[in-house]
Specification:
Blueprint: E1 23-25, E2 43-48, E3 55-59, E4 74-78, E5 83-85, E6 99-104, E7 110-115, E8 130-134, E9 140-144, E10 157-159, E11 165-172, E12 175-182, E13 187-190, E14 204-209, E15 215-220, E16 235-240, E17 245-248, E18 262-267, E19 273-278, E20 295-300, E21 306-308, E22 322-327, E23 333-338, E24 346-351, E25 356-359, E26 369-372, E27 378-383, E28 400-406, E29 412-417, E30 435-439, E31 445-450, H1 460-463, E32 470-475, E33 481-482, E34 499-502, E35 508-513, E36 528-533, E37 539-541, E38 562-563, E39 569-574, E40 589-594, E41 598-601, E42 620-621, E43 627-632, E44 647-652, E45 657-661, E46 672-677, E47 683-688, E48 703-707, E49 713-715, E50 725-732, E51 738-744, E52 754-760, E53 767-771, H2 780-783, E54 787-789, E55 795-799, E56 813-817, E57 823-826, E58 830-834, E59 839-847, E60 854-861, E61 871-872, E62 878-882, E63 888-896, E64 906-916, E65 919-920, E66 925-931
Parallel strand pairs: 57-65, 58-66
Antiparallel strand pairs: 1-56, 2-3, 3-4, 4-5, 6-7, 7-8, 8-9, 10-11, 11-12, 12-13, 14-15, 15-16, 16-17, 18-19, 19-20, 20-21, 22-23, 23-24, 24-25, 26-27, 27-28, 28-29, 30-31, 31-32, 32-33, 34-35, 35-36, 36-37, 38-39, 39-40, 40-41, 42-43, 43-44, 44-45, 46-47, 47-48, 48-49, 50-51, 51-52, 52-53, ...
Length: 943
């Protein structure tokens, strides 16, 4: 049985787990309105209608419309004063599945969209269905039911000007084919009709349709769609539905076949021209095609002429690829996406009648797709997140949709499209899981990695051009977010910041960055390791070479750091060969930095022999920094290693020795992986599927713990029920006395019902404490770091909350499981009560934990007010208690004695004391001010 990471999730609350604890969100966008009207996810697949009044696009943004709660990519339409969502389920309600493609009719009345394949949703819920929406009356017409695609092919759609005909691609008899649906007759015909030659098969992909819906262009690698197709590559074809004929258009004007593959780009509305890209070198009969690049060609269906569009104003060929394009309605204007200047793919427009070329985008643009209106004067296009110079205040760090307009005087105007009319709050990130990197020992600060820029308000402006993962520090109590990668002046790095770790005491943060403004001795744009003192701001450059300078290679940004409790030691992986002398194995190695002694290599034999292979996973270090454990693929780190697989090793920093560990008497024959190492350096949790452990693992859990002082290996847990499987996350308690681990309660590989359990080794069976939907991650280091346990037993996990108004991203955010003891505190530090108040109610709160029965006393202490004369409270204290699994307010009361004396304000205090299980919170003293209600006496004796 393999320890596995689930690839999909089902959200099931742990209603039946009596030990279940609440989970509190830690990661949240500091300012939910920080993006304004800009989308918080990439836009893609834009389309523009004939008069350029409407632009459709796909986006996974959650802040484009109010009430978007499906957490999926949807089809939207920019209507000029905001956007409206087009895609929906078959009932007209919000679809639980994303949209994969869309097309818009000439006047925008009809929109066709297709829903994606989604293993999270039952097959009865519109898998791969295609719908046509009538925007005038909201009517939905199903175009195709379960139109699956061949693996690896993008979903395609096209619609006629009047919305009657819809073309789409779908899988049929093992191949991807093209079909046309008639909304008037509700009939469907196949478009890529072959000649029936035995043994000939192929897949179609890109499609386009003329205004009438009669002509449909497509590309295909099938060889018997037309006679004499013998070039063995993908070609472009046009099918005349009425005539029942198919014409190959990716050919030379004289009819010669293309000598390399071609892909469809567009078909003009009038059905005269087909635009396609090709790697062929024999299609241009005027200018020799010797650039060795992809070019764009326009084929005239009327006279059979094929003309290269990717030639400059003087008729010279481009030196770089032209990857795609679009046509005006009459084919006169060709919009090209080209690397013409060998920089980024820019957008150009060419007048095929005059050969005039006009550059539409420049600078940081990286255009990926374009769609053109009828006149050829407007186009929508998708540009990269780094294209922040196309419109003012582009700060969302995502691919966006734009409109380009060219005036009769050849003036280009670019406007950003696809924005909400007014800002809509986005409390969570929309397009990538937040990764949990670590915590300090107390759990006061959490380290995460997330796609910027909007998580942290302070770094927001600096991170806008990028959406590469960035590390953040989150204050667990306040949810305040900060960036760890700063120099001694507090300035943020001007480079990467995707790996960070905290010392156990939380004072030091270690981070990897290629910024050149972090330390004066590190001015090379290379990933290096630094330590910042969070109290003083001082920054230490750690990954120095033997001469004290920048090494010849950087620190591995894909492997997490291991830091000691006091922050004086850190383990990291580097490709550099000059961190220590004699590093000649040309492999990445593991290194230990000590604040006193500097850097040493630890992944080597005790006799100095260098490793002959790579570290396998992230390292772990004991709290005192003495012991380091790691998995490694090398076969020469210890004598007698002949199993040819990944083993576990322990490095003793005090003795400078390395040993192979957790071997069951004979060499294991399968991979072993470290899952956690306790802060005492005594207990190791690991996974191994090696059969050599079977005699010691009757439950076949593959989860074990190894004790350093005895060398003993024991299974972590046994007793799985039928269909259950041990799975991630796995984390030891800080002192090694227990473990948290998951059990997958559903045998289906596409459904994850992960129940998190906690087991104390000395006291019996594991107890379920949370049902946690766990998602896979494509980066190996994060798969073993999905949970950390703080000193008070609180577990920090990546958790996918059920969809709601606040959490509408269907992604992992970071939460704190209140499985710890928590703290007791008052809700306020002072309270004023009138003397005639009588009974005064107050509450003691248990916060940040729910584990075990807990109690505390609020003990009165006299001030100017005296217990028994000015107020009444039990001298031993007012008792507050909570049962296991509960927190919140515990109500209590005291009484005020109302006398007739005129007195100044009197004061006494209640002090929390005699804590049982819970610890002291922030407010442990409540000061009570008794406000006198007796007026001053007059000379006649009356008030």
């Amino acid at each position: 049985m393999l320890l596995r990471t689930i690839t999909s999730t089902v959200l099931i609350l742990a209603a039946t787990a009596t030990q279940a604890y609440d989970i509190r969100r830690i990661s949240a966008v500091e300012n939910p309105l920080i993006l304004g009207t800009q989308g918080n996810a990439d836009a893609s697949r834009c389309v523009i209608n004939d008069d350029a009044s409407l632009i459709g696009f796909l986006s996974g943004a959650t802040n484009l419309i109010v009430g978007d709660q499906n957490g999926k990519i949807d089809a939207f339409l920019d209507i000029g004063n905001g956007v409206t969502r087009l895609s929906r389920g078959g009932t007209g309600a919000e679809s639980p599945m994303g949209a994969a493609s869309l097309a818009v009719s000439a006047d925008g009345q009809f929109v066709v969209f297709r829903l994606e394949f989604d293993v999270d949703v039952a097959i009865s819920n519109d898998w791969d269905d295609i719908y046509r929406l009538n925007r005038n009356n909201g009517a939905l017409l199903k175009v195709a039911d379960s139109a699956q695609l061949a693996f690896g092919y993008e979903p395609q759609l096209a619609i006629s000007d009047d919305g009657r005909f819809v073309a789409y691609t779908a899988l049929d008899l093992g191949d991807n084919h093209v079909f046309r649906f008639d909304a008037q007759t509700t009939t469907t015909v196949q478009v890529d009709v072959d000649l029936g030659v035995a043994g000939q098969f192929g897949d179609a992909e890109r499609i386009a349709m003329d205004a009438t819906g009669n002509l449909i262009a497509f590309d295909s690698d099938e060889a018997d769609l037309v006679a004499s197709d013998s070039n063995g590559v993908r070609d472009v074809f046009v099918r005349d539905i009425n005539a029942g004929t198919t014409t190959r258009v990716s050919k030379r004007s004289n009819g010669a076949q293309a000598n390399d593959s071609s892909e469809l780009s567009d078909l003009s509305d009038d059905g005269t021209y087909v635009l396609f890209s090709s790697l062929a070198t024999n299609l241009d009969n005027t200018v020799p095609d010797v650039n060795g690049k992809r070019d764009l060609f326009r084929h005239n269906l009327g006279n059979g002429n094929t003309r290269r569009a990717s030639l400059d104003e003087n008729g010279a060929e481009f030196a770089y690829d032209t990857i795609d394009g679009g046509l005006s309605g009459d084919g006169q204007f060709v919009w090209l996406i080209s690397y013409r200047n060998n920089n980024r793919p820019q957008l150009w427009r060419k007048n095929m009648a005059t050969d005039a070329m006009l550059q539409v985008t420049s600078g940081n643009s990286a255009v990926s797709q374009v769609n053109v209106d009828l006149a050829g004067t407007n186009a929508c296009f998708i540009d990269s997140k780094v294209a922040v110079d196309l419109s003012a205040n582009d700060l969302n760090g995502r691919d966006d949709v734009y409109r380009a307009t060219i005036s009769p005087g050849q003036i280009v105007t670019i406007a950003r499209e696809g924005e909400a009319a007014t800002p809509i709050p986005a409390a969570v990130l929309a397009d990538a899981n937040i990764r949990l990197l670590g915590i300090d020992d107390a759990g006061d600060t959490t380290v995460v990695a997330a796609r910027p820029p909007q998580l942290d308000s302070e770094t927001f402006p600096n991170l806008a051009p990028s959406n590469n993962f960035h590390a953040y520090l989150i204050d667990t109590a306040s949810n305040a977010v900060d960036s760890p990668c700063r120099n001694a002046n507090g300035d943020h790095t001007n480079g990467s910041c995707d790996v960070a770790a905290l010392s156990g005491d939380g004072r030091y943060v270690f981070f990897v960055s290629d910024g050149i403004n972090i330390h004066p001795d590190s001015t090379v744009n290379r990933a290096e390791l630094y330590r910042r003192d969070r109290q003083t701001g001082a920054v230490t450059f750690i990954s120095r070479n033997t001469l004290g300078g920048v090494p010849d290679s950087g620190v591995d940004r894909l492997l997490s750091l291991a830091v000691s409790s006091n922050g004086n030691r850190v383990v990291f992986k580097s490709f550099a060969t000059d961190l220590v002398s004699g590093d000649t194995n040309a492999l990445s190695d593991l290194f230990l930095w000590d604040a006193v002694t500097g850097v040493r290599r630890i992944s080597q034999h005790n006799n100095g022999t260098q490793a002959n292979d790579l570290p396998y996973d992230r390292p772990y270090i004991s709290g005192d920094g003495r012991y380091v454990v790691f998995a490694h693929e090398a076969s020469n780190l210890v004598d007698g290693d002949s199993n040819g697989t990944v083993d576990l090793f322990l490095y003793d920093a005090l003795l400078s020795t390395l040993e192979r560990i957790a071997q069951p008497g004979v060499e294991t024959t399968a991979v072993s992986r470290v899952l956690d190492f306790d802060r005492n350096g005594e207990w190791l949790a690991f996974f191994s599927a090696a059969v050599e452990y079977d005699g010691n693992d009757p439950g076949d859990s593959n989860l074990f713990r190894w004790q350093r002082s005895t060398g003993q290996v024991t299974p972590i847990a046994t007793g799985l029920q039928a269909g259950e499987q041990f799975t991630q996350p796995v984390a030891l308690l800080r002192d090694g006395t227990g473990v948290y681990f998951g059990i997958d309660t559903d045998p289906l590989p596409t459904i994850a019902s992960i129940v998190l359990h906690r087991q104390f080794f000395a006291s019996g069976a594991p107890q379920p404490i949370l049902t946690i939907p766990t998602q896979a991650d494509d980066v190996q280091r994060y798969k073993v770091e999905s949970m950390f346990v703080a000193d008070d037993l609180s577990a920090y996990v990546a958790y996918n909350w059920p969809l709601n108004v606040i959490d509408n991203n269907r992604l992992d955010d970071i939460g704190k499981l209140l499985s710890g003891y928590g703290v007791a505190e008052f809700g306020t530090a002072t309270v004023d009560v009138p003397e005639n108040a009588g009974t005064v109610n107050f509450s003691v709160f248990r916060r940040e934990g729910q584990a075990y029965d807990a109690s505390v006393y609020a003990v009165p202490a006299n001030g100017t007010a005296i217990n028994g004369s000015d107020f009444n409270a039990a001298p031993t204290g007012l008792f507050a208690s909570w049962l296991d699994g509960t927190s919140g307010a515990f109500p209590s009361s005291f009484s005020i004695v109302d006398d007739s004396l005129t007195e100044p304000t009197e004061t006494f205090t209640l002090i929390l004391s005699n804590y049982s299980v819970v610890g002291p919170g922030a407010i442990t003293t409540l000061t009570v001010h008794i406000i006198d209600n007796d007026g001053p006496l007059c000379l006649d004796g009356f008030e």
